[in-house]
């Protein structure tokens, strides 16, 4: 039984980790931190988990890391790097913030501002896209969870660049996301009255996950790749849907995806011509990918759907933690989606 | 490993059973029926479950019941009684329809119309409210799942009648329910455009679950009890919330609930003064109950929240099936609620 | 053409006033204040109104009240009383806050805390429930808009107390409300992820609008009346539905409502046996009332539905302003509800 | 005062016409037809309009067209053409179905199947995109309302093709739409439980409105133009948002839109760099258009938002009817959007 600590457990990704760990046979939660809510029972902060026997929320400095195998760090970026830097060397870390995703310090500064406080660690961090970095994750001390939108865009496109079956200069990603990706902090724009019954694009041509797209797409293609990426907010709590317009041959694209994901436990390629829906992966660690030929010759539509809190962050984090600790990577992650 | 068949697997309660059984260590699905969708892969009907290895949908008459231990019958009422009557005697049955809930044939006729086609079976059926009929369920061949609204009203009130701490003539139940209780059949009134962004009362003073209230409340009180019951439809997919106005002493009421539910694995009494929310039980088998004193002396508010598709139907059905088959009744049912 | 000022125009009730005044033939907006957003174009704060020609948002102290006929004050309570106290004597005022609703200073202190800063004004304020105070409103300088929940509960019940057709000690009000009543301020509990897909009771036995119920019900009954009142939050933006359980004769109750509302332009009594829905009054100034007999003899269900931002606050405010300024009280208020 | 008839008044576009006409000073409703609901009061079918004095629903053959100036035909396609063919010659017609949108009978057959029953009329019908066919509409007898998705895509793109500022071979339209566009007929896929909390693409590369895009874009460009068009269903009742990826210079694109829409009463170009939201046009006849430069040089994002039931169908229909009858085209259409 591995001992686990969750830092920053009062946000949605923290709660999702607790939900997943509640059904995990190989890990137990030793401590849960949340600075401003230290002292509270976890069920006071997240009443849906009140039936679980959990340690009270505490401050990070109160945690005894002796015997702790792995820390999930669900703190805000910038805070995360300072906290992780100070963790004892024997603990492994899965970071859910943006702090260790970008390898180039200049890119970090460009997208997140300010200087990085843990440059040495940043160099050693492994990018947490399991399906592409599994070997590196196995031996890593620090794994950087991907952005949820980044995961949703990378999973369907990376195999296509790898196989060389699409034009790298013509990748147009439209993305729909729900509200939980914005976290639990109170913001006017995330009020029910502002979000429900509407849809709009946001962070147009400037979303921070572009940094991850640029890094991973360019690395895979062996040349600079700059995608067009437009995220939209739609009234759902969980779920990301990407609609990706590419140039290539539909059959070659489908084959490349099939080849890459044939043995993956959580990425599921739909029959050719079918498109996924966010409601069909809600609450699960599955990512559904679909391919449909456009009526315009030479264009193909590739789609992906995943749950931003699960495969897009906490589920991915747990999958990586399983690998880092030598466990079956599917442990705690095989619950079916919740529909309706 | 017990062999299970689900009849009527193309509706929401059928899909919920499949979801729950996917995580069950002691049962395997041997057949899934759905007359009009016979021949289809289950994942074509419910794409959220497409990752599961499941038998194709078939017609009931195609099923070989040899070696089958238990049948979940998720057919519409009236159909259910005819199908169950014809099942081989060695299979145990959990029926999710209304057909075997009412012991008095006259009551059945009053609330559902038409004559009952399986009166002999009806006499032997056990009412499936686990927390009150566990012993009878253990040795039953046929268990009749409760109405989802009935479960939500019975669980908080029955212990109060049992303990004699409320006035049986002053029970006023207001109930809020989501749309999945109405099933997957296409109906104008359940369209997104009709349901979202609104709320209204329905089946006022005439809801069929009144038959179950009358039967169970009167039986427990040892005299006729007729509650006032007003259900409302609110725009959520899953979840029932009851707000029950009773006359009695708050402390005695709280104590009676505490006594009855102290050892129950799925009914959770909140700290005194707190009220539950449907979102905190979504997708789980938990029922949360709360007690709050009214400002008007002598009146008390009792609340319950449960997921109509889980504790209100398919979860309850599985809990009962576990008991009938001699398994741990919690098997397959301990997943945490999904929030947000 | 009357000159109008709206103080506190950056909240939802302010925006609703602007929406209604945009279609009003007898009033024009002279100034819009919003302290923290002073200097902004109104369309920057509420893009749905960007097509209107409106003055920029300003600070209150920048407003020249010369020639101003009436001020709508949509400020938070406590602030409102201080601002209104300082307004020049020639302007009429419709206050949408809670500051002038309660006539007894002790009651104000009990429900809102702190001492009232404008006790003299409080004495002269008229309670803004148009259908019961129309004559007083006609000659008032200061009208206090009712609470939105209060309006929804008072309209169906006051005529019954007036006619003496119900037992004043057995009034049980259950109420469902949407999120816009909580305003536009960012609060965790009003986030889409927290509100959608769920329902719960709040402010149980302690909601501030109880002060208004106590005052108005007791006054009408000529004795102390204390109702049981339980509000619930449901995932809709606009709309309040009340379900009121009373003791009395259904026919007498229906007749009393018919008598009181026969000539009212905005209160609509449904045919006997029908219940209203919030979606059928959304965006309008109409209040729908319905009466249904309970199956339990001697009990009756009375329902009301209104839009909390229109008939529950800004629409009511405009109706009162029309009366105060000698205009047709229906001006600017006859738009049909928006459905779906 | 013009006399108006609405055929097919029991659907959402019919109800929207009635809502708009309720506030129209120059038209009165003489008859409302709905074959299967003939005999009912309108308020029984659409309770939100129960306060209006309206004729009962009737069958088409019961209508006396003497003195009728204009007929809105909100019937399903195929039915529409047969009914319109039989209307007396003195009535003008605005058809909201798809029957008269496509000028080429072969195109009609390709997208809608079956032969057209009124080919002579089809030749004379004017395409109802007001901002491009105003002169033709003025003298038309029969105007064919556009598809709602078509309107949302044509309005932002047509001025760019006209001005020659984009590459006609690189137009990629992603569109989000709500549920009311699918009408009031009961369909499993439009149930609240199926639509809420999710998003998916549908009719990929095969949506019928492609016929309108092909026709109008090609006509404007003077060459064949085939766009890529992917519609998505998102959980909102009203509203269409387009996100259009084009090649061109952002400034030239903005200028072309500014030039075309400077004097239009209902099309509103947002400040450069801003994108619209469906919630800001809900319930109104406004279309908001925005332009944002992509970070990829040479690419530009153009957005539009409109209410599918208003500017996308019934509002557009009324605007055209106003023009056909020599009235101010804004009559009955200047209500502000409803938010929140």
Structural commentary:
4 copies of one chain form a homotetramer. Chain A is of the alpha/beta class and 340 residues long. Chain A folds into 2 domains: 2-146 and 311-324, NAD(P)-binding Rossmann-like Domain (Rossmann fold, 3-Layer(aba) Sandwich), CATH 3.40.50; 148-307, Dihydrodipicolinate Reductase, domain 2, CATH 3.30.360. Chain A is 31% helix and 20% strand. The first copy, chain A, has helices spanning 12-22, 42-45, 79-85, 105-112, 119-124, 130-138, 148-163, 192-195, 210-221, 250-261, 310-324; strands at residues 2-7, 27-33, 57-58, 70-73, 92-95, 126-127, 142-144, 172-177, 200-201, 228-233, 240-247, 267-269, 287-293, 299-306. In chain A, the strands form 2 sheets. Chain A has a 7-stranded parallel β-sheet. In chain A, helix 6 links the parallel strand 6 and strand 7. In chain A, helix 7 (148-163) packs across helix 10 (250-261). In chain A, 61% of the residues are buried. Chains in contact: A-B, A-C, A-D, B-C, B-D, C-D. Chains A and B meet through helix 1 of A and helix 1 of B.
Brief digest:
The structure is a homotetramer. Helices cover about 30% and strands about 20% of the residues of chain A.
């Amino acid at each position: 039984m591995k001992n686990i600590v969750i830092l920053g457990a009062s946000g949605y990704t923290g709660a999702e980790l607790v939900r997943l760990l509640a059904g995990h046979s190989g890990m137990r939660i030793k401590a849960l931190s949340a600075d401003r809510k230290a002292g509270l029972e976890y069920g006071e902060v997240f009443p849906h988990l009140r039936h679980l026997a959990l340690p009270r929320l505490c401050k990070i400095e109160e945690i005894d890391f002796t015997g702790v195998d792995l820390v999930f760090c669900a703190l805000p970026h910038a805070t995360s790097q300072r906290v992780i830097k100070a963790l004892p060397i024997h603990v492994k870390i899965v970071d859910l913030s943006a702090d260790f995703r970008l390898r180039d310090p200049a890119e970090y500064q460009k997208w997140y501002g300010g200087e990085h406080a843990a440059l040495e660690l940043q160099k050693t961090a492994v990018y947490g896209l399991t399906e592409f970095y599994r070997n590196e994750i196995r031996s890593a001390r620090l794994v950087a969870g991907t952005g949820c939108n980044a995961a949703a865009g990378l999973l369907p496109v990376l195999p296509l660049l790898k196989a060389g079956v699409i034009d790298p200069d013509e990748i147009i990603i439209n993305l729909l996301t729900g509200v939980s990706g914005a976290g639990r902090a109170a913001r006017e724009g995330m009020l029910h009255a502002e979000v429900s019954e509407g849809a709009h694009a946001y962070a147009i041509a400037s979303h921070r996950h572009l940094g991850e797209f640029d890094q991973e797409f360019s690395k895979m293609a062996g040349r600079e790749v700059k995608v067009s990426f437009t995220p939209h907010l739609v009234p759902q709590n969980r779920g990301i849907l990407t609609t990706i317009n590419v140039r290539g041959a539909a059959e070659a694209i489908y084959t490349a995806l099939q080849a890459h994901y044939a043995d993956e436990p959580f990425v599921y390629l739909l029959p050719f011509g079918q498109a996924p829906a966010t409601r069909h992966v809600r609450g699960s660690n599955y990512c559904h990918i679909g391919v449909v030929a456009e009526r315009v010759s030479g264009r193909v539509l590739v789609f992906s759907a995943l749950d931003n809190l699960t495969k897009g962050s906490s589920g991915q984090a747990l999958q990586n933690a399983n690998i880092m600790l030598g466990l079956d990577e599917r442990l705690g992650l095989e619950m079916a989606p919740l529909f309706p």
